[in-house]
Amino acid sequence: MSGKAKADKLKARLPRGFVDREAAEIRATERMLQKVREIFERYGFDPVETPMIEYTDALGKFLPDQDRPNEGVFSFTDDDEQWLSLRYDLTAPLARHVAENFDSLPKPYRSYRAGWVFRNEKPGPGRFRQFMQFDADTVGAPTPAADAEMCMMMADTLDALGLEGQYVVRVNNRKVLDGVMEAIGLAGAEHAGTRLVVLRAVDKLDRLGLDGVRALLGEGRKDDSGDFTKGAGLGPDEVETVLSFVGAKGAAASETIETLKGLVSESSIGSAGVEELAEIARLVGAAGYEGKVEVDPSVVRGLEYYTGPVYEAELTFEVTNDKGQVVRFGSVAGGGRYDGLVGRFKGQDVPSTGFSIGVSRLLSALKATGKVNLSDENGPVIVTVMDRAAVADYQAMVSELRKAGVRAELFLGNPKQFGKQLQYADRRNAPLAIIQGSDERAEGVVQIKDLIEGKRLSEDIEDNAEWRAARPAQVTVPRTDLVEAVIKILAEQAADREGAGQ
């Protein structure tokens, strides 16, 4: 290769914060999402899909940084010189969709959607610039019953995924926090920026602990990498008032609510928020979700557009993080009430509430608990090619298997070395290999090699002679019985997997 050709060679690389997804993960994700869809459909929600690109002003002031339209999001201008952005979440596009079709949609409007969202932020461990969310929202329902239902639906979803007893859905109310803000002198539009910094600081409680949040409420905090995050600039007394609110959770919902009443007794909006929390607690208790859904003042959610109840689904089992520390797995979903978001387009508030699932994070949780094992994903049955002149016969086998509903593939590489074909089948995680040479064809038979059983047996075989003598997990059947025999063996393999998982 000439020097110029080497210089012109394009380097294959991914932008930071993006990942490729392989087949096993994609299939596992789809199976998980199907279970989520079944629960959402059971609650009466219908699917809707919005584009990945919106006008930037549709995302508006709820972006992470209001000063630049391409700060926090990926933005560009079209040929009309209007700013467009890749969606930051699925909620703002839904609000635009509802406002644009308001008169034709039933109210309440109950919908769900899954899709990719994009963040133009600093990537890090477990923090990506593109990730998938799965949302459910109710628009047009003003009462706390809609918020309580969201929390119960999330509990049912986690139960359906096999996580029963390993989570808690925690609910709070931003109106109560607004009452606390009034108490420390941060009411009014002129303090909106500081309030947002306070919200985001409290939202990091599970990750940074009380000391980390205390620093972010004050002058600021330097992380392990040396980066400094400017704080809210609150005084010591103000910081302690906010932390008292965060730590107000009692042993029972009634105890928590009484404590919150005392903290916001002089605030009408704060008192209204406490009453809404009491109603949610009453509703989830009556429906049998006590212990699954709890009132917890430490939940605030970091986005500014929430106007009432907010909630998070937290997994309570322990895992080891990147620093080797044993910690709770943490949040996999969250949401809340956003009565003002549709109203940006309508000129008046439209009551709305919704939940958003972090799809990759939820899949990681299922892998951590053994509910999903990507290595167990079987590939297709591989029909090998022993005789190039008989490719039509091999293709007929593949066709018969496919018509019977069996995932099957004809080896399309170089068939010269049979061992390479079996290596290919192994890399594809194929459950079976179909083998027919000229001798088998003359006899009207075919060999079926059980690759899964062969791997298991090979662990006990110590040399090639023993391997040849044992010919493990290989059977010969009449060619006419090929499909029936393959289906039987695949069923036995599936039964073995189910038995091993019990």
From TrEMBL:
Keywords: Aminoacyl-tRNA synthetase, ATP-binding, Cytoplasm, Ligase, Nucleotide-binding, Protein biosynthesis. It catalyses: tRNA(His) + L-histidine + ATP = L-histidyl-tRNA(His) + AMP + diphosphate + H(+). It is found in: Cytoplasm. The keyword Protein biosynthesis applies. One of its GO terms (cellular component) is cytoplasm. One of its GO terms (molecular function) is ATP binding. Its EC number is 6.1.1.21. Residues 30-380 form the Aminoacyl-transfer RNA synthetases class-II family profile domain. L-histidine binds at D89, L90, T91, R119, Q133, D137, R301, Y305, Y306. The keyword Transmembrane does not apply. Its main location: cytoplasm. PANTHER family: HISTIDINE--TRNA LIGASE (PTHR11476:SF7), HISTIDYL-TRNA SYNTHETASE (PTHR11476). Homodimer. This is Histidine--tRNA ligase.
